[in-house]
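Deliverable D5.2: sample structural annotation.
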Amino acid sequence: MSNIDRIVVLDRVTLVAPLGVLFWDVVTGLPVTDALQVTAYPKDAPALRTTGVANASGIVVFHHLPGLAAVETGSGQPDFWKKLPIKPRPFVLEVTDLNRRYQPFTLAVDLPVKGLLKPACVPDLKESIVPMYSTADRVPPEGKAIVRAQLFDPLNKVPCAWAVLQVMQGANMLGQGIADKTGAVVAFFNHPALSKFSSDTKPDPAKNVALNNQVWSVDLKVLYDPKLYAKKKPIPSIPNLCSVLAQPAANVWSDWTLALPRQTLQFGRELVARSRDPKPHVDDPAKHDPLSVLHVTKAGATLRPF
């Protein structure tokens, strides 16, 4: 066997990914690594789509994007990112879940991106991730609290397409969901802290509240701008995530005169938020039947009495 005195490097090839994305389930706190269809295309050329590929770590990586060849053949070293060979170019990232567990969305992004994508429009992101929000059809994750609603704008007579439902306990947001184009929305989240609960096999009944009797008071907040999507014809099937999350706080109604009061969330039971029929019950004028929808209007709007 001959000895090798030295190795001569004839050439060095690097491949820089202009975009890498880690999709994150906001309910389970785990990465989403299956059944996602993720494409990217130049903002002004939707036909030039490139499909991302998930690597072994579950990160969706893009190569061979139009106009970014000079980036992909760069060194990827710190000096390279300080002085890019091209100016950042506007692209659109489009995400759909083939299993319909998560809402579809688009994101505007300037490429290349150093490291993983971290959308600036998503508040309180501590990591470089892109959050995924549940559809109303998703099978509820085990052990999570559930709040559902069918959001409807009675002034414009349209579903609150792509509105945002937030479940609040004081200043703390327990969970958040994005409605689909029909206004159907769900928020899955961890139950708040238990009150007077013991896991002992023989707890003191006088000092213990059974798990199924645990209740919490929560407020429901809706972000909604009818001009963004709800009043458009046709309503877009895939919204822009940043635009959705940037909608202003809206009015949420118990009936046509009163704001929705604080709601009671009970352990192990879905909370379905509904408005009341403004017309009194035929047999009991003091009673109002629940509607199938939760009425929402833009901030500052008022509902006319029936």
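Annotation notes: The chain has two domains: 19-132, 145-297. Helices lie at 69-72, 78-82, 241-245.
The annotation will be released with the project's public dataset once the embargo ends.
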